[in-house]
Amino acid sequence: MHGTQAVHTSSWRKLLSKKWVFPALYMAAAAIILTLVWVYQDLNHKPLDPNKDATQAEQTMKQSNTTAGTATGAKEEAVEVVATNETLGWPVANAGDVDVVMPYYDEKASKEEQAAAMVQYKQTFTPNVGIDLARKDKQTFDVLAAMSGKVTRAEQHSTNGFVVELDHGNGMKTVYQSLADVKVKLGDTVKKGDALASAGRSELEKELGVHVHFEVYNENKPVNPTSVLVKN
Predict the structure, then answer these.
(1) Which one, of 121, 122, 118, lies nearest residue 132 by Cα?
(2) 231 pLDDT tier (thresholds 50, 70, 90)
(3) Where in the chain are the domains?
(4) Is 89 exposed, middle or buried (0-12, 13-18, 19+ CB in 10 A)?
(5) Which stretches are tagged as biased composition: Polar residues (predicted)?
(6) Residues 95-144 pLDDT 10s
(7) Angle at 38 between CA 36 and CA 40, to 5 degrees
């Protein structure tokens, strides 16, 4: 009996000593795992789509493609709050007074546009998930609530400057960074157009000078603000 067991053990050792054995076992295990994933997907009728989640928020927020700048186009591209029919506005009194000095990073944009939307901090580059606004004369300006809501964050950040976050309900929120002279606090309720702070500076984007960094989220997913803002 022991002799037979020794023969079997020796045979296994010889088999495992072959260079091709472990790669073959690995590939077999990978095939089994992939098969189980496909079966699970089929049962739930939800095929994996890595691009779907990344674009779902933007597709939800976008309205029909009408001519930008017209009253009809502005109305159709606006984001509406069901309870008040309120639309998302620019976080400044007059959009014509500011420039978008750094755009939102769009995966569908050209390589040049994508490069212009990368934020560099020290040796790290990250995609810009909002837009940065600054006056042509480099002066400060009032930063306004883009929509009525509740202040869910108001604090100083080491690299982003002072940050204010507003919850507008229905999964919508806006974030304002690089602020100075902040006028609101955590828990405050604000109306659209209320002054939140003044444009300031941040360590993260110090090369932009005095500016405000503005982000829009739908269901915690970033949305390109320029695709949903109403021209005012």
Answers:
(1) 118
(2) low
(3) 2-44, 51-227
(4) buried
(5) 53-64
(6) 999 999 999 999 999 999 999 999 999 999 999 999 999 999 999 999 99
(7) 70
Rounded Cα distance between 192 and 88, Å, is 8
CA-based nearest residue to 159, from 204, 114, 225, 222: 204
b/e sequence 24-41, b meaning 16+ C-beta within 10 Å: eeeeeeeeeeeeeeeeee
Distance of CA 24 to the CA centre of its chain: 41
> What residues contact residue 167 under an 8 Å CB cut-off, 6+ apart?
149, 150, 152, 173
Most distant CA pair in the chain, distance: 93
Amino acid 87 reads T
CB atoms within 10 A of CB 221: 17
Confidence band for 221, pLDDT divided at 50, 70 and 90: very high
144 token code pair:
């306004």
**Angle between helix 21-44 and 2-16 (nearest 10):** 80
State the fold for domain 51-227. Answer: Glucose Permease (Domain IIA) (2.70.70)
Classify residue 120 by burial, with Cβ atoms within 10 Å: 0-12, 13-18, 19+.
exposed
Q: Give the pair of three-digit tokens for residue 218.
A: 């739908």
pLDDT in tens, 167-185: 999 999 999 999 999 999 9
